[in-house]
Amino acid sequence: MSDIQWRIKGRDFVHCNCAYGCPCQFNAPPTYGDCQAVAAFDVVEGHHGDVRLDGLRFGMVARWPGAIHEGGGEVVPIVDQRASPEQREAILRIMTGQDTEPGATIFQVFSATFETLHDPVFTRIDLELDVDARTARLNVPDLIEARGEPIVNPVTGETHQARINLPDGFEYDVTEIGRGWAQTRGPIQLSLADSNAQFAYLEMTGNGVVH
Q1: Most buried one in 39, 70, 99, 173, CB count within 10 A?
Q2: Contacts of 89 (CB under 8 A, 6+ apart)
Q3: Residues in Cβ contact with 51 at an 8 Å cutoff, skipping those fewer than 6 apart
C-alpha cells in the first residue's frame, strides 16, 4: 500500500444477475453459478491525495464465470468524461485497488479477481439515484442502460423494503435492496432482468469502509 491517502463519500447503485438479496452478500454461491453486474458510483465529496473528486462519477461492467472469489473475471472501467487527467488517474487507481489496504474495499477485492481489464472508457455517466426510495436510472452512452426499482409485494402490490447490514463489509455498511434491469453493449454484453439491485450511501478510504 502506498502513502497516498484517499476518501470518497457518496452513493452507489449496483445491479447483478442474482436473486433479490444476492447470496454473495452472505458468502453463499451466486444464484445461477456466475456473476454479472453493472455499477455506478456518485462521489459527493472525495479526494485522492491532493486531487479533489467532488461531483464526479465512475462505474463498471463486470462478469465472472463463477463465484467472484474464484477469479477469471473481466471488467470495463468507466470514468466521468468531466474528470481532468489527474482526476482520471486518481479514480482509476482507486478502482484498481491501488493505494488501498488488501481486502479493505470492493475495488481492491474485485481487482484481485479480474483476469481481463478492458481499456477504461471516459464518457458521460447519467445517473439518477434515490437510495431511500430504491430507484435509479443509469445511462452510459453505447455501454449501459439500466434502471432500479423497489421490490413489489406479490400479494398486496405494495413496495417492499429490505436492507442488508454488513458491519465488516468492504462495500457498504447498510444497503437497500431492490430489483433492476440492464442491457449493456461493448466488450461485455449483459442482459439482466428483474434481478438483484442495491442502493447505498457509501463512505470509504484506503483503509476500508467507514462504519
Answers
A1: 39
A2: none
A3: 86, 87, 90
pLDDT in tens, 171-202: 999 999 999 999 999 999 999 999 999 999 99
- How many domains are contained in the chain? 1
> What is the predicted pLDDT for the residue at 143?
98
Distance CA 178, CA 162 (A): 8
Quick check: is 124 in a domain? yes
Question: Does the residue 1 lie in any domain?
Answer: no
176 occurs within a structural domain:
yes
Question: What is the span of the domain harbouring residue 43?
Answer: 6-206
Closest CA to 12 of 175, 208, 180, 193: 175
pTM of the model as a whole = 0.95
Contacts 24+ apart (CB under 8 A), 171-176: 171/12, 171/14, 171/105, 171/106, 171/200, 171/202, 171/209, 172/12, 172/198, 172/200, 172/201, 172/202, 172/209, 173/209, 173/210, 173/211, 174/200, 174/201, 175/199, 175/200, 176/131, 176/132, 176/134, 176/200
Burial of 163 (0-12, 13-18, 19+ CB in 10 A): exposed
Please indicate, yes or no, if residue 211 is contained in any of the structural domains.
no
